[in-house]
Amino acid sequence: MYIVAPTNRRPFGFDWEDWGRLDAIEVLDIASELFNADPARVYLSGHSMGGHGTWTIGAYHAGRFAAIAPSAGWRDFWSYGGGAEYDTETEMGRLLDRAANVSRTLLMEHNYFDLGVYILHGDADDNVPVEQARFMRDQLADSHDNFGYYEQPGAGHWWGNRCVDWAPMFAMFDYSRIDPAAPRVDFTTVDPGIASKRAWVTIDQQLVAREASRVVAEYDRANHVVHVEPSNVASLSLDLSVFTSEDQPEAPSVQLAGMDGTLNGSHFTRVDETTWVASDADPAAKSPARNGPFKDALRHDMLAVVGTAGTPDENAWALAKARYDAESFWYRGNGSIDIVRDTDFDPSAEPDRSVILYGNASSNAAWGALLGDAPIQVANGKITLGSDGMDRNDLGILMAYPRPGSDVAMVAVIGGSGIVGMRTTDQFPFVTSGVHYPDWFIASPEIYLKADAGVVGAGFFGLDWSLGEDFVIRDD
User: Residue 285 falls within a domain, yes or no?
Assistant: First the structure.
């Protein structure tokens, strides 16, 4: 057995979410290739923050692991450490709260039931209370057929090597296996851009962004039909080759819930509640490769482009803000962000590299080439959303939109409708875990006095990256 230990980017990193999660999966991919590991025998364990990482990575990427074993782990920010709280009595509060669903592990609870789970905790833990383990035990034990649980009497947070090198835990690992051709798959994701696939099922698009999307698919061998029950799914893909053989070379047909007949194909798009069609995936649309929201743009070796076409204050702000963000990412995430001026930026070079654009259309000469077709336009004195506008110079904006000429890269906008709006973004946290934004987020300086009551507008773009209908504009 090989033990592989990624770093979460730094010792505290990102709680194994965001870039920490990416680090874990990248290291897993590298190690699997390096050691020619058996993909049916991959296991996940961690202690404390790593225990939380075991819960969250194990939920999103359940199909990658035969068993998981959190030790002294906590399930989410709301149960441990304090997650962001929004006024869900308002439309804006509900939308912002939904953007944070990616950190709510229990929304993907069903993903745990088809893999082994062993929970380990000291019952006198004064760091991560044992109630974290007991809660998850109560959630899972009665409905789980490959489950283990142990509390060490009198033990605190760390009780020696045994709290990570526990014989019954490794015994579960030894007999647990992944079946890539399991006839039944039950898979939930909150964001296909984070995790979209389990076994032979892929959730490509959601109907409502960042609500739980679930597919239960089962192969009926007798009739050579796959029955699929999707929930909050706009499109999905099935790798039906796992059900072909020399004796049965034809792929099975597919029956989606609500439809009378069956379909043939591998990619399916929802038309309405009772109609699906076999279709080709559109690489320009939202997909697992590029789904948003804002933080999704902060990968693919992102390059910061600062504006030089604005006022002296705007230009100075752009450079200072880019340097601050780059330093923050180095300090927290052990990564380097290159910074270039708009006059030195070539939009046709390195098209699959994401860009962080600082400023607006008035202050950054790269705006037109990168965002000229975006449904949200930002200039001095005005932000335009489709056919509507906000005539103010004090609005700050974060936005993620596809980079032209690429199927994976994005453009992250950090800017505003004037120097006051630009400076409003100075304390918007994003190089940290537990902070989530939708595709676009507009706020006035009042956000620092009134919290989310200072958010002027926020939303998720449509599946075709149009403005869509999933947004809220505050009227007051």
Answer: no
